[in-house]
Amino acid sequence: MLNIVLVEPEIPNNTGNIGRLCVGTESRLHLIHPFGFVINDKNLKRSGLDYWGHLDVTEYQNSEEWIAKVSDKSRVFLMSSHAEKSIYEADFQDGDWLVFGKESVGLSEEFLNLFENHLTIPMSNLIRSFNIANSVAFVIGEAKRQISLKI
């Protein structure tokens, strides 16, 4: 099972869509406060549809609380549009932590400095980034593909 981590998510619709994606891919969702919305936001529930009740989700009050739960820091992968290594160069394994930052600014430099594995999703230079829900879908898809080849 993959662990999807959203650091300080700002948009409820994105979080709802990612929650639904986690249910569909049997992944766990980890949400690090502060949020740009309240967890019972109607937009979050609408985006997550009736799947939200099936979601394996954990909330953390801050990044330190989440980091304390990670037993193997080498299996944490931070997504950044500034990373040099592509998600297609990573060697994903079951149980990995795939970490995504705020919709508006991504992961802070301070947060990026906490872990070594930084990855990017290749994209046209005509855009700065993908929508976070699309980014999560790209990375889960690649990770699940790799994991299925190892079985």
What does this structure look like?
This protein is of the alpha/beta class. The protein is built from five helices and seven strands, in the order βαβαβαβββαβα. α1 packs parallel to α2. The longest helix is centred in the C-terminal third of the chain and has 19 residues. The two termini are 13 Å apart. The model has no long low-confidence stretch (mean pLDDT 91).
List keywords for this structure.
globular; seven-stranded parallel beta sheet; 5 helices; 151 residues; alpha/beta
Question: Gist?
Answer:
The chain contains 5 helices and 7 strands; from the N terminus they run E-H-E-H-E-H-E-E-E-H-E-H.
Mean pLDDT value: 91
Order of helices and strands: EHEHEHEEEHEH
**Strand percentage:** 15-25%
Biggest sheet character:
7 strands, parallel
This entry's quaternary arrangement is: single chain
Bulk shape:
globular
Query: Count the helices. How many?
Result: 5
End-to-end Cα distance, whole Å, is: 13 Å
The tally of strands reads: 7
The percentage helix is 25-40%
Structural class: alpha/beta
What is the CA-based Rg, rounded?
14 Å
Q: Which strand order does the major sheet show?
A: 3-2-1-6-4-7-5
Low-confidence stretches: none
